[in-house]
Amino acid sequence: MVKVVKIWKGDLMMRSKSLVKNKDLQRKVLCSLLAAGVMSVCISGGDVWASGTIKDQDMIITSNMDIVADDGEFEGVTNRYAAIGHTQDSTMTVTAKPGVMVDSVVTATNGRAMGIVNVGNGVLNVNGNYSFALNADTVRGIRNNGYNDLNLNGDFIIKAVSKGKNSNNDVVVGVEAFNGTNITVNGDKLNIDITTDNARIIGVQNFNNNGETITFNSNDTSIKAVQIGTGSVCQGVLAYQSTTNFNGNVVIDLKADQVTDQVHGIDIQCDPGNSYETVVNFNNQKTDIKVEGGAGSTVAAIRASGVPGTVNLNGKVTNLTATNIADGFSAAVISQYGAHVKSGADSDVNASVNSKNGDAVAVYISEYAGYNGNVELKGSLTANVVSENGAACGILGELSDEVKAETDGNIYIGKNLNLGVNSSNSEAIGIGASGKYNKTSILGDTAITATGKTGAHALYAEKGSEITIGSKGKIVDLTVSSTNGGKVYGLDATGGSDITVNGSNLTIDVSSSVENGTINDRIFAIDASDNKGGKIILNSDGITLVGEQKGHTVYCDGVRANVSTIEFNGNTTIDLKADLKDDWGATESKNKQSQFAGINVQCDPDDNNATIVVFNGGKTDIKVEGKATWFAAVQGSGVPGSINFTGKKVNITAVNNKAVREGDSTTVGIYAQYGATINSVAATDIVTTVEANGYANGIYNTNNFGYNGNVKLKGNFMGTVISNESSAYGIYNDPLAADNTGGEVYIGKGLKLDVTALKGEAVGIYGEGEHSKTTVLGDVIITTNGQNDSYSLYAAAKANITLGSAGKTVALTGDVTAKDADSIITLAGDSNVVKGTVTADAGGIVLAGSDKATYIVNKFVTKDSVSRFTTVTRGTITVSGGTLNIDNLSDINKFDLADNSLIVTGKGVLKAASDKVFEADTSGKKVIAGVDQKVLFNGGKLAISDTSYTLADSKVYSEALGKVDDSGVGANTKTTIVMTGTLQDQPVDNKATVDDLAPTGAVHTNVTGTVSTGTLNVGDGSSSGGTTGINNDLGVKDLDFSSTSGSGTVDASVTISNDTGLTLVGDGSSELLKGTGSNNTVTVGSTSDSGSAGTLTLGNAAAESSGGTLNANVTLQSDSQMTVEAGSFTVDKITATEGTVAVNAGANLTTTQDFTVGDAINNKTGTIDAAGSITAGKVDLQQGTVAVTGSLTANELSVGTSNKEGTVNAAGTVDVDTLNLNKGNVEVTGSLTAKTLTVGDSDAKIAVGAADSAGTLTAEDVKLGGASLMLDPAWEDGSTIQTASKAGLKFNGSQIDGKLTVGQNSVLSLGTADTAKAEAAFTDTGLTWGQNDITAALYIDYEQTMDSTKGGIKVDGSLTHVSDSKDLAAANTATFAAGSLLMVAGDAALTMDGALKAGGTATITISNGSAATLKVDSGAKLYIADAQADKQYTIVSGFTNSGSAVTDGGWNGTNLLLNKLVKGSGSYSSGSFTVSTQKVKASEALPGVALPNILDAMSSQTDSPYAGIKYLSNAISGLNSNAQTLAAVNSFAQGAENSGATRTGALAALDLGTAVQEHLSLAKAAAEQSGGFGKAAVDTADNGGIWAQYIHNKDKVDNMGGVSYDGQYNGVIIGGDFADRGKYSSGIAFSYGSGDSTGSASKNEFDFWGLSYYGGIQNGDTNLIFDVGYSKTSSDVKGVIKAEPDTQVISMGIKGEKVISNGHGTSYVPYAGLRYLNVDGGSYNGTIGGEVAAHYSTDKADLWLLPVGISISHESVTAGGWKVRPTADIAYVWILGDKNTAMDITVPGVNATDRLGYDIMDSGFFVGKLGLEAEKGEWTYGLGYACQKGSHAQNSKFMLNVTYSF
Question: How far apart are CA 333 and CA 301, in angstroms?
């Protein structure tokens, strides 16, 4: 050995001082050593060997060495020092043997100091442990600048120090690679420690490296750097066109407080044109990146800039810390310029960000040079963000809309997000998004807490951005607050932005504290102001909004919307509190009254987008409480604005505590003004509670800015309204604007109001103004209790109030007043009861119920009003329907009426005993003067309620009533006397001749009229031998002709003419013409030209019952009428040549033969008015009108003839087998269904929908013959495709031979009569229906051909019925306007000619001289249902190129909708529009999807016969967001594991094994040496015993392998101990139990049983226990799929333990064990709707559990001889083996298999137990509790034990 230089360690620093003197000598010695191959020496004692630079030579170092570097002139430059260097093309290897440490000192005063450098084209290998102390202005720790590899194997410590002052030129780099070189570092650790003054710091620089790689495989890599002085840039890792891999744990720690520009832990930089990607990968367990800066710099743990650039955080845990101690921005992650920052699904990212004076953000993406950044973290993110004086943001995207790549701009968190955001003096934002390409998606549980001083947001989206939070089963918890006012938002979307929240629960908690706040200090749980058509969609199952405005400010809103849509699609609770105060300050910004609104819709008539808030959840609770001058729970202001409730239950509560002494206040439950509408569907029940000190209103509808509001509640409404110090109103409706479109309060079902005013007036319903219309159709109960006045109803100034309808009850407590002329209150129930006074004070009270209606009122009052011009307006009470009893008319306490103010008319009936109406006079009878004075008889009926009467009585009553002359006060119609009793003249059969009955002028409802001849002429009194004639009206139950022919029958003939009428009441079922044959006729009206009309009435509203069969052919003549007034009647045949057949509402008419209307030959017109129900064989409408507001059912409906028109108005329901429209029009505003529809006139028109109503037309065999069809209903608030006008047409031969215009709010289906198909297809698109979205749609189910001369299509939502005809569909043209949607079934577009073929082609000229033209606007959308990949779909064909116009963007780009796994593009050429599709890999379209192979192989088919394909196809449709699709697919893939079937089975087996081991444990028998358990050990060892244990188990799993569920079961274990054999104890045990577990998409109900043999060997204070068992769990899973898997488990366990006693009753039993579980989940099918949807085949899992723990117990004996033992146990259980297992999944009909991994157990868990046992004699009782806690699962058990020892 050669000793080169001997230096003591303490002299190392002196070496550099003598470097120059020794340089030459050193070189000579080194050269000789190199030549001899000697590079290592053996030393003794404290000696070390020193060397200069090791350069270009293999070396083996066998003992510790110090290297003091020379100037190696590396890279051809002098003054470059390195400890180890290589400049050649060969391979150089330097190896330090194990245990050897090589220390190096490299100092360069004016040059560069390097540790290891490779600058040639060769390979450098450095092996062993090395330490480098580097000191120079410029430093490189490890540098590879050659064109080959540098491999480091060992531990490396680099300590770099730079005193460099030039931050631009002086650079310190830990590890760097350039020019296409690779560096690989292996070993246990790599430590880089850098300290500089002003020099730039780069920990790792992989820059311009031609795509090559630096790989750090060290177990631990540490990069720490401190820059003391000023500078511009400090970077931990800098990458450009290279790949950098960290495969071990990493710590990067930078501190550069004086750096002014950038302090970045990871910094990647690249450009779109780069030849190589830039990638930094962290593939380790743990990464810690910590950066600190100041002086105005941007401080970021990760900054990714440029495309193609990516940072991948694939390790288990990544901790990011960014701190800016002064001015400047700080962030954990920054991504811009198209770069990506990603993490794996099993990677958790934790971020801590602090900034003193600048903004602080955890994740930030932005735009640079036209490219937006991306952050895609498939795992979880936890971040804490704090800024002292700047803004603080958790996630923020500020992007540009002017981009070169539209797919960038994504922020994605695949699992959970937890954000804590705090700004001490500025605003705080949880998630902020800006720009239309900003897509932020969080799939997992989300918790955000944002606290600011000047304002705060939990979620903020602006400028067209999108934020999606949560997925199925996830929890979203948002807490946002401000410490000093400002605006505080839970969700805030503006500028056309969308926010979507999914999951099981959403909680938003908003609070703010401020004193003397202004309008700018307020809270919003949700705000969507100026959102330009954007949407906030809340899909969570449960939604809770909680807000509290602390202190005092002016405004507070729970939910505010403006030009936007907000949807609540789950059960919703809104609970807001705020004590506000008015601010009448001097400045203009103040001067505001305090306003508090729970829901607040604001908009204006000229808005471009509607404002809509929708509550679709089953239950909605809205509560506002506090103080304000204006106080509303639900408030709509502005047109077009609406608030819509579609769920079953809505609770609205408003509690205003502002006292009257503090000023006036108004409190409202539901408020509408300025044209806004509040809507609910028929299934919705709304309960409103309002309590206030000021004015209180349940519903308040009024006007503002010239528009009236509307409240349209189609369901039930219940209100409780209380004012403690003022007046209270249930419904207050005073729309005073001159606006005919508003002013309505409508309640479609029941109304219940309870109104109390302790110091004012209480009013149930108040209406004021000519546009005030309040209507309630259902049952009504109103109770009012006011100190001053109590009104159940009050109408003033022409207001209109209508309550009740047929079959309903109206019950009012409180007065009813119609004040002022033309104010009308209508009671229209069947039972109408008013406990109060009904007053017509110059207004009108109308009693307008059905024929069954009755009225009970405490008192009626009518008053006159005299104007200043002495004009008298008399109040009136009008009976126009139902029956009013006037027996007490003379009692002024019942009827205080002005003259002629009680009017009977129309269908109204006044009922009284004869002596209450008539009195004797000299001529017989007269109307009592008081009756004559008060009652105005103007039609209707007067029913005499006497139980019996004579014909003479009825006659004098009619004569007396006829003498009353009310013509001078407006009466012009005869009032009919109706006798409801029986005839005294005929006590047996209640019959009388028509000759005797007719002169009475009355209707005899129980009397049969006998006719002595076969002919009866009503209205013609001349009689002959074969004819009976009467001059008067005749009203009877029925007619009997039997006396005419003795015992035989006669064909009767009845004629009604000369303006007389025949009423046949019937008895409900019998024939009306008795004793007659089969050829009876009834002619209504005279057959002669000079004759006059007649009237036939069937049924009577005053009769007890009506109905029967009119066994005759009925013919109506000119001006005559047949009316079915009440009951159900059958008529043989009806010919309404002229006149009208009317069926009143509630009545029914059936014809057994033809029903003819009009006479085309003789040019006569007839009419059918079906308010009730008509059933007919054939309805032949030759000329005239059929108007159906009820229903019409017929085999055939023929409309018009070849030369005469007919019109059908189908406002009700029309159902016919055949509809022939020969000439005329059909208007459908209800529904019309026809199996065959044929139009014979090209000028005929069919209209579906009208200005105020939608309609539905369906027909299967359609021939339009060139006629026009137009669909168009007006838009209404809350319009959906379900409420649009619809037509479903199957054309004959699929030949479209009509001109079809699909106008506003309409959808047409072709090729099918099932309109639900179009609705389902539209749902799949995920689009929105509305006047600012999709306005009109066409669905093609089967290929269609458009007739070249008769057929045309136009889909244009701007068209209405009043549009000019030239703007409608024209022949040979297909037009699709902006806002239109064409939906085609995929199969229809795969045919040769496509979904729609023009009759002519582009090359063949059709007969009219022109080719078919196609026009597609740029805003037209196309959807292909069930689109498949790699197909060419032909949408249309046969059109001309020259005359057609397919505008760019139409049916293409974002306007082409397929499904998530198919992409495509459309093109128009050669007269055809085709779409070519390509497959999108499921893993790319849906990152994290569980079934990528199946989805890739599957052909989407939403109506597939295969249940699995159908389910998955619907899941990937446009209906669902990506998050919803992932949740739907993955829960399907999880099968029974979604609710933990396998884990449940494993736990059941584990519990059995644990129980039997504990039974034999020394912890139970620890005291036996002293008589344990009350008996001597010798006693317990003889005869065995029996024992039992009850277990109640609760299991909670949180994101274990992507699965979360809650489970519980109850079970029992019964065991028997055999008699001991020496030290050996044994027994058997049986377990049984059942329980359930609920996952995100399924519920599992399971049973289990098990059997175990156990034994133990106890040797003094030690014990060895074993058990062998088998268990089986049978599951019944119901959810996304239904499955019945069985889980079988074989369990074997062994446990060793030792007891340690202190001699005073306390024992310690430490133990350790091993358990083996073989878990077999088997194979099973998952079904949907009874069909197999998937097959699941699980792997067997082998689990090894290693428990280690200790049990502690203490035994004491009570005075009663009970042994009492409390116990405690603590253990940790390691899980080894297949805790992560998998299963194969297949789907019938798909040739692919996917493999899904899932977890059975955590990697380990703690177990803690507490117990108490008591023993006396042979019995032992115990109870216990155990808690098991792992990283993803928590388990709790409650146990009861009992043991009996023989």
Answer: 6
Specify the higher pLDDT residue, 188 or 43.
Answer: 188
**Closest listed residue to residue 1229, CA positions, set 1257, 1251, 1254, 1258:** 1254
Cα dihedral 951, 954, 958, 961, rounded to 10, equals: 150
Q: Of 359, 363, 362, 364, whose CA–CA distance to 387 is shortest?
A: 359
Give all strands (DSSP E) within 899-969, no chain letters. Answer: 902-912, 918-921, 924-927, 935-944, 948-949
Return the amino acid letter for 1555: A
The Cα 457–Cα 451 span in angstroms is 8
Helices 1522-1534 and 1507-1515 meet at what angle, rounded to 10?
Answer: 150
- Express as a percent the part of the chain with pLDDT over 70: 94
Peptide bond between residue 640 and the one before it cis (omega within 30 degrees of 0): yes
pLDDT in tens, 1796-1810: 988 999 999 999 999
Q: Which tens digit of pLDDT belongs to each residue from 1696-1716?
A: 999 998 878 899 999 999 999
Q: What is the pLDDT of residue 157?
A: 96
Question: Rounded to whole angstroms, how far apart are CA atoms 1032 and 573?
Answer: 68
| C-alpha closest to that of 556 among 530, 590, 585, 525 | 525
Judge contact between 434 and 397, C-beta under 8 A. Answer: yes
Q: Per-residue DSSP letters for 23-45?
A: HHHHHHHHHHHHHHT-------T
- Cα separation, 390 vs 237, whole angstroms: 28
Q: Which residues of 395-420 are buried (b: 16+ CB within 10 A; e: fewer)?
A: bbbbbbeebeeeebbbbbbbbbbbbb
781 forms bridges with which residues in the sheet? 752, 811
User: Considering all CA atoms of the chain, what is the largest pairwise distance in Å, rounded to the nearest integer?
Assistant: 163
CA distances from residue 45 to 40, 67, 99, 1707 in whole angstroms, order as listed: 16, 19, 16, 56
Q: Which region, left, alpha or beta, applies to residue 488 given φ > 0 means left and ψ of -120 to 50 means alpha?
A: beta
pLDDT in tens, 1643-1654: 999 999 999 999
- Supply the mean pLDDT for the chain: 90
Local structure of 332: helix, strand or coil: strand
8-state DSSP, 1076: B
The pair of structure tokens assigned to 420 is 């804590």
CA of 848: how far to CAs of 767, 855, 884, in Å? 19, 10, 10
d(CA 8, CA 211): 46
Tell me how far apart the alpha carbons of residues 1707 and 1663 are, in angstroms, rounded to a whole number: 14
CA distances (Å), 1021 to each of 991, 994, 1001, 1033, 1096, in order?
21, 11, 14, 11, 18
pTM: 0.74
Residue 672 is predicted with a pLDDT of 97
User: Distance between CA 1698 and CA 513 in Å, rounded?
Assistant: 61
Distance CA 364, CA 387 (A): 15
The kind and range of the H/E element at 827 are strand 824-827
Q: Which of 24-38, 1180-1194, 1239-1253, 1729-1743 has the lowest mean pLDDT?
A: 24-38
The predicted pLDDT at position 108 comes to 86
* pLDDT category of residue 893 using cuts at 50, 70 and 90: very high
868 by Cβ neighbours in 10 Å (0-12 / 13-18 / 19+) ranks as exposed
* Six token digits for residue 1225: 């029009």
Beta bridge partners of 844: 824, 876
Task: Tell me: pLDDT of 22 over 80.
Answer: no
pLDDT of residue 851 exceeding 90, the answer is no
Rounded Cα–Cα distance for residues 1248 and 1284 (Å) = 10
The answer to whether 1154 and 1126 have CB atoms below 8 angstroms apart is no
**Strand extents, DSSP E, 580-727:** 595-602, 611-615, 619-627, 630-637, 641-645, 649-656, 666-673, 677-680, 685-692, 695-704, 707-708, 710-713, 716-723
Q: Which amino acid belongs to residue 738?
A: A
